[in-house]
Amino acid sequence: MKRWIAGLLAALLLFALSACGGDKSADRSFFYPIASEPKSLDPQICGDADTAQVVGSLYEGLVRMGSDGSILPGVAGSMEVSDDGLVYTFHLRPNAKWHIISNFKDIYGKDCEKNLELPVTAEDFVFTFQRIFSASTGTPGAHTLYAIRNAKPVHEGKVTPLELGVHAADPYTLVIELEKPSSDFRTLLAQPICAPCNRFFFESTKGKYGLGLAYTMCNGPFYLHRWNVDTSLVLWRNPDYAGDAPVVPAAVSFMINNDRSGYARRVSDGTYDGAPIEPAYMPELDGSVHIENVPNIVRGLAFNCADEQLQNAYLRMALCSAFSHDTLEMPEKTAAQGILPAACRVSGEDYRTAAGRAEFPEENPDRALLFMQFALKEMQTNRVTVNIACTAEYETAMRRIIQRWQSVFGVTVAASTEVCEADELLRRQQKGDYQIAFVPVQAVSTSAVQSLYAFTGDGSAFGLDSPEYAGYMQAALTAPSPQSAAACCLKAESYLIRTGVFYPLFDDTSCFAFYAGAQNITLTPCGDMINFMSARKTD
Fold it and tell me: For a FRET experiment, which of 95, 174, 285, 388 has its CA 20 to 30 Å from that of 357?
């Protein structure tokens, strides 16, 4: 609660500053690139990073995540948690509204934008969670909210949505009941999928919700003003936004541009006010550009658990026991402490500090040979063939690993490297078109729990199907304290490393560049969400 009060005081300070007359840095427009056009702006099916950036500006859920990973008030101005940690009561701001535009006339009638005021109510959130756990919605990440009472049986169609532990006590009071206490629950509520949805509006769109201007109703700091297909999404400041902090920019345009090679030039000349910049294009940045390096990446060997040979855990464990970080002979690289990068948080706290280093296999040739014997026996063969896909930058390091395998296993293992462009390598990994790939694994969320969930399930690029791992994840979701949540995540990390699903080798960062004249554009700790609410320009 103290953090929420601190956030409110900071917001009031910002409001006072912005209220000063003649502030030429305010009311400006900002431009930011996304690599792909959203298929839909429906928050409940928000499944990719680019769409999440847009959705995060258009909608506001019960809570928001701050730039330091703390959880701040959203539509819920305050909340209470029962002593047993099972009941969360959210008190919604009575002045929170849906922004109505003239394009909704077919739903709400002529001149609706002038004549209609539509509050955001607790029933909107009840409908949201019912949609999340409806199998027909296909919400990515729905399982991360299984701590909610009856969420899993509703999702599996075993009980009706009416039995979900989410209900409206009155129009502005939402009550969420949990099966077990969950220390990370508020963080999970900050996901874009938890943004509210108005039932009447949704049903009136007749299956087109989020597919265009006339089908997208917003309650966030900005609203959708124009959707230029293949070009941009133009967002205007929402005059109905009721958050603590004022919205400073007049507009934000998300420019659709999959040519990442041009981002650096466009930030340097002010065409873009910010952009993620890949390492190869860093030299093209102007010296006055502000750079923010986010420690959200771990690079390592990904083993395709769906591959005909590498589905054998003993084979993966044999290969991982035969080398270590030192094999790469890259002393300038910081050895990874686990699968999760340094930016991840658990219950708002620094995850790695709370959890410590994950369990790595010891480089042990004798153990590696023993695992290989088990693998060959189970596979009924006397030789395996593996290929490592990598970018040209890391081919030499991968050849050193192969040399170590040849030294330990001899002719039992035939290994080779395959050089790919970075985009092609990641595309192949996502499709499962690889055996072993040396790849950057970027945290999909600041939440440690959410990021670890990316390693399993239908959307996983690792082909992992493990009840044991799922158990660790479920335990992390319902851990009663930050310390126990961190301990569960550490067990999950160690399981992935120990069984050869992913062998983390060194930490890395993502780079975000901001135009010299653009200020107060903030990122969440892992860079998964960008916030323009307080953005200003000095030129």
Answer: 388
Number of H helices, E strands in the chain: 17, 24
**Residues whose CB is less than 8 angstroms from the CB of residue 259 and which lie 6 or more positions away in sequence, other chains included:** none
Angle at 329 (CA atoms; ends 325, 334), nearest 5 degrees? 55
Our measurement of the distance from residue 340's CA atom to the centroid of its chain's CA atoms, rounded to an integer in Å, reads: 13
Question: CA 163, CA 156: separation in Å to the nearest integer?
Answer: 13
Contact assessment for residue 40 and residue 224, using Cβ atoms and an 8 Å cutoff: no
Question: Residues 75-80: what's their mean pLDDT?
Answer: 97
DSSP 369-422: HHHHHHHHHHHT-S-EEEEEEE-GGGHHHHHHHHHHHHHHHGGGEEEEEEE--H
Supply the pTM of this predicted model.
0.89
Nearest residue to 198 (alpha-carbon basis) of 272, 309, 262, 107:
107
Pairing relationship of beta strands 173-177 and 222-228 according to DSSP bridges = unpaired
DSSP code of residue 476? H
Mean pLDDT, the chain, as a whole number?
Answer: 92
To which residue do tokens 């109703």 refer? 217
Nearest-angstrom CA–CA distance, 354 and 490: 10
Tokens of 69: 């990973």
**Radius of gyration for the chain, computed over Cα atoms and rounded to the nearest angstrom:** 24
* Interatomic CA distance for residues 508 and 299, integer angstroms: 7
What are the strands, taking DSSP E only, across 238-289?
A: 251-256, 274-277
Residue-wise pLDDT for 203-256, tens only, equals 999 999 999 999 999 999 999 999 999 999 999 999 999 998 899 999 999 999
Q: C-alpha distances in angstroms, 364 versus 112, 303, 387, 404, 406? A: 71, 19, 22, 11, 14
Q: Considering only CA atoms, which of 125, 16, 8, 122 is closest in space to residue 70?
A: 8
Place of tokens 């659709």: 256
Tokens representing 91 are 């008190």
Block residue for tokens 């040399």: 403
Asked whether the beta carbons of 77 and 91 are under 8 A apart, the reply is yes
What are residue 25's phi and psi, to 5 degrees? -80, -15
**Would you list the DSSP string of 115-129?**
H--EE--HHHHHHHH
> Please, what are the domains in the chain?
2-11+25-275+515-537 (3.40.190.10), 295-509 (3.10.105.10)
